[in-house]
Specification:
Blueprint: H1 7-23, H2 30-37, H3 43-47, H4 51-70, H5 83-98, H6 102-115, H7 119-142, H8 148-167, H9 176-191
Length: 192
């Protein structure tokens, strides 16, 4: 997918994200994006010719928005980070994804499921996921993990499971103190 990065591309992708959240994968069509964005008919199709191209554009924008919403959590921190500081950082990210970032999380899950059926989307989804795992590896290394790559993968899997259970599963929204306790338990197991 080689659509240029423009304000119109962002509008189309942002509208596609909203449609994924509000209508699900079946509700995301070129025509629906045009209508919701208030664009002339065919605008989305001119930018992203195929459904695959529209999904790729949407996932790229979603990754950009989620990365920006994490702020400092996606950049390397101090050379050494205490377990308490790391716990606060991670719990803050989870809380953000359950609150302000909830719609992004829902859209990401829609795209994740679609990626299981579309190999071309799977490649892009996995590449985006690798960025988050790499960030987890960096912060866990700074906190003293004896195996930061493995622990980074495990932490992302654990936290993604926690988010899924709260948003799409039967777990309901955990209280911030419960999120922090779960993160602290995870870090104690990893960091000792």
């Amino acid at each position: 997918m080689s659509a240029p990065k423009t304000a119109r591309a962002d509008l189309i992708a942002d509208t596609a994200i909203a449609l994924l959240v509000d209508r699900g994968m079946r509700g995301l069509t070129h025509r629906a994006v045009d209508e919701e964005a208030g664009l002339p008919a065919g605008s989305t199709s001119n930018l992203a010719r195929t459904r695959a191209a529209l999904l790729e554009l949407t996932l790229a924008r979603l990754t950009e928005l989620e990365t920006a919403s994490y702020g400092g959590a996606m950049t390397p921190g101090p050379p050494v980070m205490s377990a308490d500081a790391l716990g606060a950082l991670i719990a803050g990210v989870v809380h953000h994804q359950l609150a302000e970032g909830r719609r992004y999380t829902i859209a990401r899950y829609e795209l994740a499921l679609e990626a299981t059926r579309r190999p071309e989307l799977r490649v892009i989804y996995d590449r985006a996921g690798a960025r988050f795992r790499e960030a987890a590896t960096v912060v866990l290394a700074a906190a003293g993990s004896p195996d930061p790559a493995r622990h980074g993968r495990q932490a992302v899997a654990f936290l993604d499971g926690m988010l899924f259970d709260a948003i799409a599963g039967a777990g309901g929204d955990p209280a911030p103190a419960d999120v922090r306790a779960a993160v602290d338990d995870l870090l104690r197991g990893m960091l000792g």
